[in-house]
Amino acid sequence: MPLTEEDKKEKRKYERKPYDAELEYFRAGKSENMLPAVSIDISEGGIGLTSDCPLEPG
After folding, report:
1. Residue 46 and residue 58: Cα distance in Å, rounded?
2. Which of 38, 37, 44 is nearest to 17 (CA)?
3. Which of 14, 17, 25, 37 is buried most deeply by CB count within 10 Å?
4. Is the dihedral of CA 5, 9, 12, 15 positive or negative?
5. What is the distance between the alpha carbons of residues 50 and 35, in angstroms, rounded to a whole number?
6. How far apart are CA 47 and CA 20, in angstroms?
7. Three-state secondary structure call for residue 42
8. Rg (Cα) of the chain, in Å, rounded?
């Protein structure tokens, strides 16, 4: 059963704030090329983003 938004909030250590920006990143040890992405949210623990390139959590 999928988690509700309330369930997700309870498990998060840091509060997330919406953050919409275009950015570039690289995957350490996997690529030297910068890859495009779009941020979703940001917190003290990290940033949520979407990308056409598959990413693993963390």
Report:
1. 9
2. 44
3. 37
4. positive
5. 11
6. 11
7. strand
8. 13
Vertex 42 angle, CA 37 and 46, to 5°: 85
Mark out the alpha helices in the chain (DSSP H runs): 5-11
pTM: 0.64
Backbone angles phi, psi at 5, to 5 degrees: -60, -35
Q: State the Cα–Cα distance between residues 35 and 12, nearest whole angstrom.
A: 27
16, 19, 20, 25: CA torsion to nearest 10: -90
Report pLDDT for 10.
Answer: 60
Between 37 and 10, the higher pLDDT residue: 37
Is residue 25 within 8 Å of residue 38, measured between CB atoms? no
